[in-house]
Amino acid sequence: MAHDDKGVVKEVEWSIKVEDGPWKRARISCSMCVFISSLYSKLCKFMKKAWEIGVNDPRKFIHCLKVGIALTAVSLFYYLNPLYDGVGRNAMWAVMTVVVVFEYTAGSTIYKSVNRICGTTLAGLLAFGVQWVASKAGKQLEPVIVGVLLFLLGSAATFSRFIPTIKARFDYGVLIFILTFSLVSISGYRIDELFDMAQQRISTIIIGTSLCIIVSMIIRPVWAGLELYVLVTGNLDKLANSLEGCVAQYFEAQSTSEESNKKLMDYKCVLNSKATEVSMANLARWEPAHGRFNFRHPWKQYLEIGATMRRCASCIDALVGCINSENKSSDEIKKIMSTTSMKVGANSASVLRELSITINNMTKSKKLDSLVKEMNIATQELQNLLKSYSNTHNVNAKETSSLGDAKMEIPIMEVIQVVTVISLLIETVARVEDIVKSVEELSKLAKFKPEMSKCDKSKQRSTQNKILPDQHDEEATIKTLQIV
Fold first, then answer.
1. What pTM was estimated for this model as a whole?
2. At the top level of its lineage, which domain of life is listed (predicted)?
């Protein structure tokens, strides 16, 4: 502290000025090195993940090449003078159309292309009619008429998007209709020669959509119908694995590996597949006949099969929840019910796998009826065993036994879990029968052929070289999707 002339005490402030030196530059350099190494590590992980996606499904990489081909081809209308003179500056609309319309599956591309063409054409013609009527009313009433009709048609078209049928098939077309009608009707008030400009834009949109459809269907097409077909057959196998594994895990009480636990939870994929199935079924209706799928193939029936599978999967989910509950049954009761319950689970899984083979081969199975009969017989045996057990044992909440009573009293908590599991297993069998009925209905609608004998299969192998190349490609695609 320091004193001034009047004796007042003043505080002394100390400050240290540090000049930039080599140590600060080294610190900055070290931080930059850490940042660059971290960025390089993240970039390597991203490239590795992208490579794995391309390796697991090469069709995604091919789709990228198809989009590049379509963009390159449509850009020629802008670069080449003869093509540019035909469409003018509106050639850019063809490029925009390719970017917006080109989708992963052929069905989605056709759906958006047709909706875009129809929506643009209908809205353009209607907007010209509105503009012509409004122009006859004079300059003062013209904006009023256009505004009122824009309000009415825009509101009506927007409301139509809430209708399930229109939303499923024409939602994109209605959106394009609203956009095009608004732009054309409003632009007609200020722009001259509107008809020529709209005509050029419609022609460029038709060029872009046609090019997208051609490229999507010629170069390794990805069919939405085939995706739905593979999804349904794969879900049947997943249900079979989950049902059989669940029953085996409960009654055998064995330690399961990570892979078996993963198969046990496959039924959750079935529970979460509704949105994907509905989307694929709606897109598959726009696709032409391809491979083994004829025109007007009953895609809607696949949704019915998916609904019955989800009901079966919900029973399996309840079964897994009951098995994992804290209430445990005695080993003696489980041992009595284990053999018959395992038989029911195995027979039900066999029926589901046979249904998957039936849809996969598109043939009527000769073994399906016998497998369903064996499943029902085993289920009846399980019901009879449960009744006989309840008749020979008196379930009581008390843990004491009555010596004078001929029936043996057992605690109710030791029985409640195993009885619930068996009841859910019997209900699952009923849901499997619903799946069988849905698949049989599909075989009628799709006109599945009878299953060939061994002699006929040998003849088919001898003539395998005569099969069309696209059928070979489809079979290879099915195998690839099932592996993935």
1. 0.79
2. Eukaryota
